[in-house]
Amino acid sequence: MKKLYLLLPILLLLSVTACQVKQNTDNSTADTTEQTQKEWAIALHGGAGYVSKDMPEERKQAYMESLDEALAIGSEVLKNGGSALDAVEQTVNYLEDNELFNAGKGAVFTAEGKNELDASIMDGSTKNAGAITGVTTVKNPISLARKVMTDSKHVFFAADGAETFADETDVERVERSYFHTDHRYEAWQEANKQSGSLPLTDEQKSWKYGTVGCVALDKNGKLAAGTSTGGMTNKMYGRVGDVPIIGSGTYANDLVAVSSTGWGEKIMLSVSAHTLASYMEFKDTSLQASMDYLVDDVLEPGDAGFIAVDKYGNFSMKTNTGSMFRAAANSTGEKSIGIWEEE
Ligand code: ASP
Predict the structure, then answer these.
(1) CA angle 259, 89, 172 (to 5 degrees)
(2) Which of 43, 61, 192, 214 could serve as 88's disulfide partner, Cβ 3.0–4.6 Å?
(3) CA–CA separation, 47 vs 213, rounded Å?
(4) Which of 133, 181, 211, 275 is catalytic?
C-alpha cells in the first residue's frame, strides 16, 4: 500500500510530461516560418479591381513608384521604432493625397456627382477603433477616424455628425472641389451611361473599385490596420460600404491586422476582415491558410482582395479580382510590390 502512495505522484508526473510532449509535437507541425519573429512588418494596398495588363507602361510605372514610396514611408516609421498606428496613418495619408488612388484626392464620384469619403482605423493592442462615413471636407479621412478612436467616446460618426466632430479637431479641411479630378469625373460620366446593366463587365468593374489600406506590426509587437476610400463609382445617396465598418473593411487584434478592398457589399456580408482573424484564431492556423480560406472559400471570384500582417511579421496579400495594387516589406528584408493576381 505504501509503495502505491509513492508510485501515484510519479505516474501523475509521467502522464503530465507525456501530455506536454504531445502538445509540443502538435505545434511543431505548424508552419515553422510563422514562428520566426520579425521586428516589424507592413503591407499596403491601393485597391483591388480589374486592371488591364495592357495598361500603358508610363501609368504602370507611376503606380509602381507610388506604391514603393508609400511603402518607404511606413517602413521608415517602423524601422525607427514608431508605432504601427503612425505607420498606418502616414502611409494612408500619402495614398489619400495621391490622385492615382480612390481615397482622399482621387476619390470616385457618387450618383449625385459628389465625393463622399469613408475611413476606419483599428488598434490591435487595445482593440479600440474609429470610423467615419460620408465626409466631404476632410482632406485625410484616416486621420479623422484616428481622432474618433482617441478623442471621442464613440467609434463611428456619419456625414454631418462626422463633419461636426471634425470641427472640434485640428484635421485639415478643404473645399469640396479639392476632391474633383478629371479622370474620376470622366469615369463617373461613363458609369452613368452604362448604369443599370448587370452583371458588370470587367471594364465597368475596373472603374467601380479602388480604395487604400495599410496594416502594420511595430517593434513593440503591436498591430494596427486602416482603410480609406471614396467608395464605389456612382454609389447611391447615403450608401455606406465596408470600409468604415469595423470587422468588414478593417480589423486588428493582437494576432493579426487586416484591410479589405473590392465589392463593399460582398465584403460586409461576409464580415471579411474579422472572418480572417477568427479563422486564424479558432483554427489555430497560419496567416496564409486563413487568407486562402477567405479569398477562395468565403468570397466568390471577382469580389475582393485583402492585405494582412500577423504578430510574427508575416504578411499576406491576395485578391480574386484579377488585380490589386499592393506592396509589403518586413525587417528581414523581404519586399514585394505587385499589381496583377498571379505575380
Ligand atoms: N470596398 C470599397 C467600397 O465598397 C471599394 C473598394 O475597395 O474599391 O466602398
Answers:
(1) 125
(2) 214
(3) 8
(4) 211
